[in-house]
Amino acid sequence: MSEVSAIHVLSLNCWGLKYVAKNRTERINAIAAELAKLEHDIIALQEIWVFSDYEHVRDSVVKRLPYSKFFYSGALGSGLALLSRFPIIATSVHPYSLNGEPIDVGGGDWFVGKAAVSIVISHPVLGQVQVFNTHLYAKGGEDGPEYNRAHRLVNAWEFSKLARQAAELGRYVIAAGDFNSIPSTLPMALIREYADLSDSWAVAHPTDPTISSPSAMDAITQFGVTADSPLNSYSAGKPIGPYARKFLGKRLDYILYRQPIRPLTRPEDPLPVLKCTDCNVLLTEKVPGRPFSFSDHFALEATLEIRTGDQVPVELADPHNVWSNSSAGAGGAMSPGSAPASELSADSLSTTMQALAACYRFSRQRARKELTIFALCLVVLVALIVGSPWLPHAWINPIFILFTVFIAWLATTMFYEGFLYGNWECNALMNVIEELEIYKNNLEVQAGTSQG
Hints:
It is found in: Membrane. It comes from Mycena alexandri. Keywords: Coiled coil, Hydrolase, Lipid metabolism, Magnesium, Membrane, Metal-binding, Sphingolipid metabolism, Transmembrane, Transmembrane helix. It is a multi-pass membrane protein. By secondary structure, the chain is an alpha+beta fold. It folds into two domains: about 5-340, Endonuclease/exonuclease/phosphatase (Deoxyribonuclease I, Chain A); about 345-450. About 40% of the residues lie in helices and about 20% in strands. The chain has helices spanning about 25-35, 50-60, 145-170, 185-195, 200-205, 215-225, 240-245, 345-385, 395-450, and strands at about 5-15, 40-45, 65-70, 80-85, 90-95, 115-125, 125-135, 170-180, 200, 255-260, 275-280, 300-310. β1 (about 5-15), α1 (about 25-35) and β2 (about 40-45) form a beta-alpha-beta unit. The radius of gyration is 25 Å and the shape is globular. The two termini are about 45 Å apart.
């Protein structure tokens, strides 16, 4: 008879940007009070930008979750935090190489340190578990344009590499966060295929997400909608895209998981197996006594059952994730073909490379335009300096000074955007494109070797 236990995970985008997020203090207080009532083993928070807000949430749940980490990154922080019932033995922060443009002040993505952060916890049954928390780049939607969508694809690729590397180290992987992508989009395909992560909602609710929901509540309970729901006070009435209008919201928040690729110790024993048995959307109601929601996202929870014993359950016998006595030698090495790594499909690989190449071309063209504006600004500044002694009227002086300051600012901004940031973006894109080229060539070599 197998031993059964579970890890209960919760993820929530708190929408906690100081001065910008509405009703932030009241909502954070309400979120902390609600989380204190729940009994989760791991909580992943996104957009918890203010450290005092994090401290308030942490102190509210500290009796059950005594271990926690607030992650610093970028100019304004990562907005990411993890709280755990189990001891934290290591932490890491991986800022994404692309995250919007510095000139896009309204979007703000470039100024924050969006990243893939993680903790390694010591679990009494599973051993080392690496828990990731992330918030991917927002702009681009489901359909692009490509130069916006490419930044999120770079995020997804970097995230999937980190998750796969963790599994290759022999660790179980749990990943939560706001991925800003619906399940059918390319970033999620990259993560599913390359990192081989299972989607908790899809495992627990094998329903067709392409079917329109009869009501907003059905969209939540049947399809896992966590954002842009008409039942959310901050989504109701705001402009939303055609997908959210048709399906009464979007599923942008995920709890993902996978088994390790190879065992660290005692390879002669079957490894415990993670399997999602339940996944639900929480905090869909209004804050008690107030007319607004807890956040502009709903929370997501998942129960990951741990199955151990002499036999791996038949429905979990996935060759990517599970080993038996016959799959590993005495030294712990996997026998050939026993646990092949998951790989990107040809369609995903091709479409990703096309999107990145389109973004590279757009970035080069934009950089040339910005450097042209920079050169014109220099010409205007020289003309202003030469012409300043011949101003016809004294009242023009203040206007002249303000105009000069504006042209100087524009020149500096265009130089930074066109030369410094433009080269940064192009180099980052080229790095990923070349990585994928090498990856594609390796797949072709492997396919040729197996056929030979």
